[in-house]
TrEMBL record:
The keyword tRNA-binding does not apply. PANTHER family: ACID PHOSPHATASE/VANADIUM-DEPENDENT HALOPEROXIDASE-RELATED PROTEIN, ACID PHOSPHATASE_VANADIUM-DEPENDENT HALOPEROXIDASE-RELATED PROTEIN. This is Acid phosphatase/vanadium-dependent haloperoxidase-related protein. Pfam families: DUF212. Signal peptide: none annotated. It comes from Brassica carinata (Ethiopian mustard).
Amino acid sequence: MDEVMTVADAGGSRASNLNGSPSSQNLLPHNLPLLSAFLAFALAQFLKVFTNWYKEKRWDSKKMISSGGMPSSHSATVTALALAIGLAEGAGSPAFAIALVLACVVMYDASGVRLHAGRQAELLNQIVCEFPSEHPLSTVKPLRELLGHTPIQVAAGAVLGCVVAYLMRSTS
């Protein structure tokens, strides 16, 4: 006779999710990779205010919500995510492999494509500024120039992400 497995037989977390009471394993506070990524992002964005002050000698709170600058919040986020997954599931897990490839793509993009797009925007803005006032493009809103990161900014973000992921794991 064939045996039938019911939802109740399947185990705790799935059954409790289907019954409406969430499992403690699926709640946001217990997802260390996700929390590590969010914390690394927030910390990197917060630090941009101070690194901008150090470089420009002026406070600019808008740096907390802008792209570009030191350290790279994109690098911090994906590095914290990848390392937290690696620490939790092991370096041989498929989730770690996916997160590591994602981190490499994001960091390459930040220091390559986006950096050069920002430099092109800077040149285009200079060209538009030199147009005579009667030119139809002379009143165009300038392009955002701070899009990407230098390799040092990307590396600083990656180090920050590693520190956050490691500290989050050691405190849990």
